[in-house]
Amino acid sequence: MRPPLITFEGIDGSGKTTQMGRLSERLKALGRPFMTTREPGATDIGRQIRQILLDPKNRAMRPDVELLLYMADRIQHLEEQIRPALEKGQLVLCDRYHDATLAYQGGGRGLDLGWLKPLEAKLVKPLRTYFIRIDPEESRSRLDRRNRDQGMDNCRLEEEDLAFFRAVDRGYQQLALAEPKRFCIIDGLGELEAIECLIWNDLEPRLEAL
Length: 210
Hints:
By secondary structure, the chain is of the alpha/beta class. The protein has a single domain, classed as P-loop containing nucleotide triphosphate hydrolases (Rossmann fold). The protein is 55% helix and 12% strand. It contains eight helices and five strands, in the order βαβααβααβααβα. The chain has helices at 16-30, 44-54, 63-87, 98-108, 117-120, 136-150, 162-178, 192-208, and strands spanning 5-9, 34-38, 91-95, 128-133, 183-187. Strands 2-3-1-4-5 form a five-stranded parallel beta sheet, with helices on both faces. It is globular and about 45 Å long. It starts with a strand and ends with a helix. The model has no long low-confidence stretch (mean pLDDT 94). Belongs to the thymidylate kinase family. This is Thymidylate kinase. InterPro entries: P-loop_NTPase, Thymidylate_kin-like_dom, Thymidylate_kinase. ATP binds at residues 10-17. It comes from Candidatus Lambdaproteobacteria bacterium RIFOXYD2_FULL_50_16.
């Protein structure tokens, strides 16, 4: 059986990137072949798309154009990196994947995504998705603190208001409720070590069963 795709989802500041890094260290210690990646921006083309998507100067971008750019990044990423890694026997850990589009562009922007079905049929489906959930208010607090500490400005999406992120959060929750066998919902306010152990205890037996 081919190794699986494992994805990490959540609104900005949830800690998903940190937890993916911690899982990577565990897999490295075990000598298990794996690859870490992210969306958007994992490929050369994707990095150019990411710059367009996140640039605050592009506030006039239409929601449907935003959606198409994310899908373009995903298809390039899938064919250039994810599929080849899986075919070589590598487990793939991805920081955001298609659920992010469903939550952000479907939930946050309120777009009808029904026309994406033919494209979705071509995607690799994750074995497990770790949805690290925090309240939008906590997300804003964490982003403001991070940007202040690192001397960074908000990117285009980070400039959205709380209503947008509340809609994204609802979108993620609806996705998780619709696929409880794939999603693992985690309280992002927990201790980092506790969250790390929870993810590992959930994932390890699944990997052993492959």
